[in-house]
Structures are given as structure tokens and as C-alpha cells.
Design goal:
Helix content: 40-55%
Strand order of the largest sheet: 1-2-9-6-5-3-4
Organism: Maribacter ulvicola
Number of domains: 2
EC number: 4.2.3.4
CATH topology of the largest domain: Rossmann fold
Strand content: 15-25%
Order of helices and strands: EEHEHHEHEHEHEEEHHHHHHHHEEH
CATH class of the largest domain: Alpha Beta
GO molecular function: 3-dehydroquinate synthase activity; metal ion binding; nucleotide binding
Radius of gyration: 20 Å
Keywords: Cobalt, Lyase, Metal-binding, NAD, Nucleotide-binding, Zinc
Shape: globular
Protein name: 3-dehydroquinate synthase
Structural class: alpha/beta
């Protein structure tokens, strides 16, 4: 795969990824190379990653606990303290080896430590390869509220090695694939149709490059999310609220990001049908495609009421209004759409049927 060039960094693949990394490390001569891992990537990915590095450098490994529940400022404080104790300075670099939680948080930690040190993202999940590690969004959650604290700051480079996906359980793969399906819905009907045929991990790997290209093109047009970049949030206004609700509610089994976003995309497709004229054919196609891949979740009236309350914290909101990204048709999104309150219950009713 050819490298994808963004505004200030590149996404490199497979052998080219390690070649680019080794050249960069030799050129920059960092004081210390820190590698941020969780317990899973420490065991399953770090040995293979280290085996590809040429040259003698001072390495320090920092391990954090995996999971969205640990994506918080307390974890950041622990890593900042470790960096200080281990002698990190502004000529150090942090390599974030992990999924979306780790690359989001690692980028934020690096961007704020001593007012910013270099960081490199090495995503190890499908979600982080096609979404979280690309585009410069970094940050942590505030309690159960998703990504409330953070900055937009670009990595030095992103290294995508699809072989890392072989370490994942199927549920994690499906979670990442939801974001790929989103790329089809917001950008290309032909890509949406192609993705619907992907059944195995090998099939999904073939489309990673296309998804990263779609996200990169959008980010290049609007790096700080003033307008068109908002289309990448299709399904996320309701999806993030659902994810947050299931994260904070001890009586609920936690949903992975892609599982919650899949529900959000069905709900927001219904809103698109009612408000922007998305055809019933496309609406049913979207619902069928997601429910074929993701388990249907039961929502009580109280669940729905609490989820709708959480929407007011969405990052796209302004002036007290909840703004949505909806679809005129597949491949044609519209941003900043306000929704009449009565339609939300209708959308959940459509999902339940």
C-alpha cells in the first residue's frame, strides 16, 4: 500500500511503516523513546513491534489499563508522573501502541506534557486504524461523557500494520467495521455496497486504505472541524449518548464504541428519512445491514429518556442546540440539522421493530 500524505504527517503501511519509523528515529535522535501500551498490546503486539526497530535507543515502556472506563484524566496524571520520573524532556517522543482509547489518550498526554512532545500512533485495532489514530483528535472522557477534554494536534506519523488485527477478538473487529460502514454512508454509495460484501477479517483488511483515504480527505478540507469535518460524526450524536449511558449504568453491559455507533446510525437514518427525504429503501437497507452484524439492544422508556438527556453534552452542539449530521441519500450528508423532539421516540420505535 502506498503511504497517505496528510497536511503535516503521513500514514504508512506494513513494511513501509517500519522503514519510515526507523529512518525517523535515526534522524531525530530523541533523548528517550517512550512506548505507551496497555496490558493487551504489551503482551500481544510490543514484542513484534520492537523486533522491527533497528538501532540503539533508550526505551521506556509505560503500561496503562485498557478500556474506555480508564480513558480519564486520572490515567493521564499517572502517565505524566511516570514521564517526569523517567526523565522525559521536550526532545523525547511517545509511541502510542494500541487501540482508539490509547491513541486518543496518548496523543493528549504527549500534546500537553511540557507543552507538547512528539508522538507517533501505531493503531492495533480496526477502529483505531480507520478512525481514532488519524486526524489529530486527542482527548479523554469526563466521567461517562465522551471526549469532553482534549486538543486537536497531529502525530508525527501513523503506522498501520494490519497483521496486528489478528490478535483481536471478533467483537472488537466488528466494532471498528462500524466506522468503515459510516465512511461509505457519508461519502460513497459504491463503497457502502462493497463493504456490505465484506464478511471476514481478510475482506475488511482490503478496505482499510480506502477508509483512511476518505477520512484524510475530509480532515484536509477542515482540520479543526468548523464545517465539513462534522460529517465524520454521522451516527455519533445519539451513538455517543448511548455509549455513555451504558458506560455509567452499572445494570447495563458496556457497549463498544462501534456497537453504540451502529445503533446511532440506524436512529439517525430514520431522522434523515423523516427530515431530509432519505428513501425508505435506503433506510431499510441501513437498518438491515447493521442488524445483520450487530445485536439488537433493548431500550426501556427510562433508558431512552436518559440517553436523550446526555445528548446535550455532544461536542457539535452550540448555543444550546443539539446539532445532527443526517443523510439526504447515501453519500450525501448534511450537517447542523436540528431535530424536533417528538422524532427521537419515533426513531427508537423504528429501531425496536
Amino acid at each position: 500500500m502506498d503511504s497517505i500524505i496528510s497536511d503535516s504527517y503521513a500514514v504508512h503501511f506494513n513494511e513501509q511503516a517500519f522503514k519510515a519509523l526507523n529512518n525517523h528515529l535515526a534522524d531525530k535522535k530523541y533523548s528517550i523513546v517512550f512506548i505507551l501500551v496497555d496490558e493487551n498490546t504489551h503482551e500481544l503486539c510490543l514484542p513484534n513491534f520492537m523486533a522491527e526497530i533497528n538501532g540503539e535507543y533508550e526505551f521506556e515502556i509505560i503500561e496503562i489499563e485498557s478500556g474506555e472506563i480508564n480513558k480519564n484524566i486520572e490515567t493521564c496524571v499517572g502517565v505524566w508522573e511516570a514521564l517526569s520520573e523517567l526523565g522525559a524532556d521536550r526532545k523525547s517522543v511517545m509511541i502510542n501502541l494500541g487501540g482508539g482509547v490509547l491513541t486518543d489518550m496518548g496523543g493528549f498526554i504527549a500534546s500537553t506534557f511540557k507543552r507538547g512532545i512528539d508522538f507517533i500512533n501505531v493503531p492495533t485495532t480496526l477502529l483505531s486504524m480507520v478512525d481514532a489514530s488519524v486526524g489529530g483528535k486527542t482527548g479523554v472522557d469526563l466521567g461517562a461523557l465522551k471526549n469532553q477534554i482534549g486538543v486537536i494536534n497531529q502525530p508525527v506519523m501513523v503506522l498501520v500494520v494490519p497483521d496486528f488485527l489478528d490478535t483481536l477478538e471478533n467483537r472488537q473487529v466488528r466494532s471498528g467495521f462500524a466506522e468503515m460502514l459510516k465512511h461509505g454512508l457519508i461519502q460513497s454509495k459504491s463503497y457502502w455496497e462493497a463493504l456490505k460484501e465484506a464478511k471476514s477479517l481478510a475482506d475488511m483488511k482490503q478496505h482499510i486504505l480506502s477508509s483512511i483515504q476518505i477520512k484524510n480527505e475530509v480532515v484536509l478540507r477542515d482540520p479543526t472541524e468548523q464545517n465539513i469535518r462534522k460529517i465524520l460524526n454521522y451516527g455519533h450524536t445519539l451513538g455517543h449518548a448511548i455509549e455513555s449511558y451504558f458506560l455509567e449504568n452499572e445494570s447495563k453491559e458496556m457497549l463498544l464504541h462501534g456497537e453504540a455507533i451502529a445503533i446511532g446510525m440506524i436512529l439517525e437514518a430514520y431522522l434523515s428519512h423523516k427530515l431530509l427525504g432519505l428513501s425508505e429503501q435506503y433506510l431499510d437497507d441501513i437498518k438491515t445491514t447493521f442488524l445483520d452484524r450487530y445485536d439488537k439492544i433493548e431500550f426501556s422508556e427510562d433508558d431512552i429518556a436518559n440517553i436523550l438527556k446526555l445528548m446535550k453534552y455532544d461536542k457539535k452542539n452550540s448555543h444550546g442546540k443539539v446539532n445532527f449530521v443526517l443523510l439526504k441519500q447515501i453519500g450525501e450528508p448534511k450537517v447542523d440539522v436540528e431535530i424536533p423532539l417528538e422524532l427521537f421516540n419515533e426513531a427508537f420505535a423504528y429501531y425496536k421493530v
